[in-house]
Amino acid sequence: MTGWAALAEEMVGCTACGLAATRTQVVPGVAAPEARIVLIGEAPGRAEDEGGLPFVGRSGRLLDELLDAAGLHRDQLAIVNTVKCRPPANRTPKRIEAATCRPWLDRQVRVIDPDVVVTLGGSALAWALGTGRRLRDARGQVHRLRLPGSEERSYQMVATYHPAAALRFGPAGEPRQALAADLQLAAGLVAR
Ligand code: URA
Question: What does the alpha-carbon distance between residue 173 and residue 119 come to, in Å, rounded to a whole number?
Fold first, then answer.
């Protein structure tokens, strides 16, 4: 079994936080065997909680469209979330939930060892760079991400908007334009 599969299997029984009581199932995420880019969303929504896969609802459909425009496809990527269980009514994960779930995400990134990490939205940005960073200021540039406990390895990191924000503000809105541009930026950072 690969490191990724073993990790996913380990997390399906997780009861470390209160989200375990209301979820249908843990959604570990997906990773192509040779994934060079990891996309990090916030949390599973209803469709993901029911289906067990990340980004399969409306946000996921827009994400696929923008990935396609950037020349990227799911079979080249890993797609995961900051928390692996759906928060009730899709509320933002609480800090304690994000902190409790954090070791899973850190381990996933280490196992995949990607060229580029892309954070989608505020929760993933907080995971990467801590709270108090504004997405508008952080996006559109390449950061160096170091994970706790393995500071010797750093990852190129691009922060961008969550597809749900792109849907909310429409096709001409700043989040959608920025998300499209930032996915292009990330695609260009993959080692060739
Ligand atoms: N939104 C997310 O942040 N993640 C998903 O998997 C689906 C919607």
Answer: 19
